Each structure stands twice: as C-alpha cells, then as structure tokens.
Amino acid sequence: MTSIIDASSLDEPVVIVTRMFDAPRTLVWDVITDPKHVVHWYGGPGFTNPVCEMDLRPGGIWRHVMQAPNGAQFTINSVFLEVVEPERLVWKTIKDENRKPAPPTAVSTVTLEEHGNQTKWTLVARFDSIAERDISVSMGFAKMIGMGADRIAERLKVK
Questions:
Q1: Which end of the chain is more exposed for a tag (fewer CB within 10 A), N or C?
Q2: How far, in Å, CA of 65 to CA of 31, rounded?
Q3: Phi and psi (nearest 5°) for 65?
Q4: Does 43 have pLDDT greater than 80?
Q5: Running DSSP on this structure, what letter comes out for residue 85?
Q6: Which pTM does this prediction carry?
Q7: Is 101 exposed, middle or buried (0-12, 13-18, 19+ CB in 10 A)?
Q8: Which residue range or ranges hold the Activator of Hsp90 ATPase homologue 1/2-like C-terminal domain (predicted)?
Q9: DSSP assignments along 5-42, one per residue
Q10: Share of the chain above pLDDT 90, in %
Q11: What is the pLDDT of residues 59-112, one digit of tens each?
C-alpha cells in the first residue's frame, strides 16, 4: 500500500501523509519510536542513519544524523512536545543555523489508529507559513516522508 500525501492544501501550512500498515498499533509504535528500528527506515532508499538518539518524553531531545547515498550528512534535531504511547507523538524540529539552506522547522504530529489488525498512521507537519511549507516540499520533505513510510512497512515485515 502506498502513502497518501497532501502537500498542496492552499489554505493551511501543512503537509499530511497517511498510510495503513498491516500491523498492530503497539508494533507500529515500537518501530517509529525505538532508535534500533528508526535507523532502518528514516529517510529514503539508500539513506543511512549513523546517529539516532531519542529521549522519548515531553521535553526530551531527538538527535538524528541522516546520511545520503552520496555521503552528505544532515543533522536533524527535534524536541518532543507530547508522547502518548501508543497513539500520539508530537515533536518540533530545531532550526539548524549551520545548514545552508536551512530547511523550515515544523511541528509534526503522528497519530496511530487501530483498524482491526491494521494501523492507520497519519503524520501532520505544520509549518509557520504556507511559504515555509512550500520551501520544505520543494526540498523533498513530503516525498521523503512517503519513502520513510514505505521503509516502515518493510521494517514491520521483519519485526
């Protein structure tokens, strides 16, 4: 199953990605919140994650380094705002002033809803403005989230 991506809402600065996973909600939660799993799905095909540290509590920091197939590394740091196991996770990316161009920051909310033996995963990334959302989309944000969801599905098969 593919992800459904809405990155073109004209009146709100959001990107919404939804996906149904063939796994129970608690398993999906584990795969999206445990660094030993996150390193296997974060980013698109060919990306690796040499650093993934998650202090999974409100106020905790998510420190992440993603490496592209060409070797370029991108540091992505976030702070968790809300953690409701196994149904809701909210974090805000921290602006990286050293990264040029620095991608816009967003508050991202993931909700997990049980649907029998499946789980509906919804990610809503809210940007400060429509212009920032559009910049993020042009940098590949929505596409990368969709590819990450594909990799989550693959990880759930081996879990």
A1: N
A2: 18
A3: -120, 120
A4: yes
A5: T
A6: 0.90
A7: exposed
A8: 22-155
A9: EE---SSSSEEEEEEEESS-HHHHHHHHH-HHHHHHHS
A10: 69
A11: 999 999 999 999 999 888 999 999 999 999 999 999 776 666 667 889 999 999
**Sheet of strand 106-115, all strands in order from the earlier edge strand to the far edge:** 4-6, 14-21, 118-127, 106-115, 88-94, 73-84, 61-67, 48-54
Query: What is the model's pLDDT at position 74?
Result: 86
Q: Which listed CATH number (3.30.565.10, 3.30.530.20, 1.10.1200.10, 3.90.1300.10) goes with 2-40+83-157?
A: 3.30.530.20
Two tokens at 18? 């939804």
- Determine the average pLDDT of the residues in 47-58: 96
